[in-house]
Specification:
Elements: E1 8-12, H1 24-30, E2 34-40, H2 42-52, E3 62-66, H3 69-72, H4 78-92, E4 98-103, H5 107-110, H6 114-122, E5 129-134, H7 144-153, E6 164-168, H8 173-185, E7 191-193, E8 208-212, H9 218-226, E9 230-231, H10 239-253, H11 258-279, E10 287-290, H12 297-306, E11 311-317, H13 322-329, E12 337-342, H14 344-354, E13 358-361, H15 363-371, E14 376-378, H16 380-384, H17 393-413
Catalytic activity: chlorophyllide a + oxidized 2[4Fe-4S]-[ferredoxin] + 2 ADP + 2 phosphate = protochlorophyllide a + reduced 2[4Fe-4S]-[ferredoxin] + 2 ATP + 2 H2O
Cofactor: [4Fe-4S] cluster
Keywords: 4Fe-4S, ATP-binding, Bacteriochlorophyll biosynthesis, Chlorophyll biosynthesis, Iron, Iron-sulfur, Metal-binding, Nucleotide-binding, Oxidoreductase, Photosynthesis
Length: about 425
């Protein structure tokens, strides 16, 4: 029996997650001619300063158009104010070719319809594409900012009839290079969304088959399907097993010979298996509890259970999309609680009762749980670290084993320290 048939515990209470604005931190690196203009408060500016480790006023390629009290009170024409700030930005930064207006709150709160503003501004400068999406913590969770951004781009992609593979999802450069090498060895040259510069974004059409590189791209998935593209369901490329099954789904869709597939993947698969086995020594037989944070939890739960020998107590994700997460759920043995959404107090009670060997959670919960004697892993690290495909498989296992090794080292170095993590 697999977890895909298990009932889902749906919770709709208080959440403890980052908002979607933080996805700008990695998205702006993938699109060198883009600028992300957050329309929000000084709080949003401070959040991006802290999350990115840079000063907003230095304007790397994102900034905040700060709403003052007069804007929120309706004493000023917010559209005129926004138009003026955008004109100043584009005059100062003529290199911008893609401008994203990112809402930090719903339109009802900021008193400004950014979707209509983007449509108006998009026609005012023929050299700049202006798009809008929401990064609001009220409307989005941590990684949904990327999903909203890519989904906003899909309707404007050119149309093509040619047969092609599109890979959706922003990946670190080293990971994307590995993906291209593997697919190139199979005779497949993928197009990628986002495609870097404005002129490099892929075209899409009925001949397009697409694979998701990230498990949090539900809106992007739906937008591509509406454009006529066909989704290739597969486990996500975490670890040796996930990477192999992801590549196999693509290979089968494009008629790749099995002998060629084995020749291309045999050596990196073997390296990945060895690396995971070594890094997972501290994980085998241990229990893990995954709080909902990044929407990576389901494929990571599959990786930890099947490749690292862990026992999952609970696997929780902000959202569960059967069409996207089904292949991973189908591989996870029945046993762990599968939870969607969050009621943080109820979930904390379950985590405290379970006292798993490792608790994967957000920054806001990690320190309090550590103080209670639980060993934790920051979920945010799993988003900002290269973790996809074969060459990163051992590093991915190491991210989970490191907290356990650290606690074991503390016990050895300081025998009098009171550490109550479950044995």
């Amino acid at each position: 029996m697999s977890l895909i048939a298990a009932p889902i515990l749906r919770e709709r209470g208080q959440r403890e997650v980052f908002c979607g604005l933080t996805s700008i931190v990695w998205l702006h690196r993938k699109m060198p001619d883009a600028f992300f203009l957050v329309v929000g408060s000084r709080t949003c500016a401070h959040l991006l300063q802290s999350a990115a480790g840079v000063m907003i006023f230095a304007e790397p390629r994102f900034g905040t158009c700060i709403l003052e009290e007069g804007d929120l009170a309706g004493l000023k024409d917010a559209n005129e104010e926004l138009d003026r700030e955008v004109a100043r930005l584009l005059a100062r930064r003529p290199d911008i070719r893609q401008l994203f207006l990112v809402g930090s709150c719903p339109s009802e709160v900021i008193k400004l319809d950014l979707a209509k503003a983007a449509e108006r501004l998009d026609g005012s400068n023929p050299d700049v594409r202006v798009l809008n999406y929401s990064g609001s913590g009220i409307e989005t969770t941590f990684t949904e900012g990327e999903d909203a951004c890519l989904a906003a781009m899909v309707p404007g992609l050119e149309r093509t009839e040619r047969r092609q593979l599109l890979v959706a999802g922003a990946l670190p450069d080293a990971v994307e290079d590995e993906m291209r090498r593997l697919l190139g060895g199979l005779g497949i040259e993928p197009v990628v969304l986002p495609g870097g510069r404005a002129g490099a974004h892929p075209a899409v059409g009925p001949g397009t088959a697409f694979a998701l590189a990230q498990p949090f791209l539900a809106e992007t998935h739906d937008a591509l399907v509406r454009r006529g593209a066909r989704h290739l369901p597969a486990p996500f490329p975490f670890g040796e097993e996930g990477t192999t099954l992801w590549l196999r789904a693509v290979a089968e869709a494009f008629g790749v010979d099995e002998a060629l597939f084995d020749a291309v993947t045999a050596a990196p698969r073997a390296r990945a298996r060895r690396a995971v086995a070594q890094a997972a020594e501290a994980l085998r037989g241990r229990r893990v509890f995954l709080f909902p944070d990044s929407q990576l939890e389901i494929p990571l739960g599959r990786f930890l259970v099947r490749e690292c020998g862990m026992e999952a107590v609970e696997i929780a994700s902000p959202y569960v999309h059967r069409g996207i997460h089904g292949p991973d759920l189908d591989l996870i043995p029945e046993g762990p609680v599968l939870a969607e959404g969050q009621d943080v107090d109820a979930q904390l009670a379950r985590a405290r009762g379970a006292r798993a060997d490792l608790t994967v959670c957000g920054l806001g919960l990690a320190n309090p749980l550590e103080a209670e004697g639980l060993t934790t892993k920051w979920a945010i690290e799993l988003v900002f670290s290269p973790v996809h495909f074969y060459e990163q498989a051992g590093d991915l296992a190491g991210l989970f084993s490191r907290p356990l090794r650290r606690r074991a080292a503390l016990r050895g170095l300081h025998p009098n320290v009171r550490l109550e993590a479950a044995e």
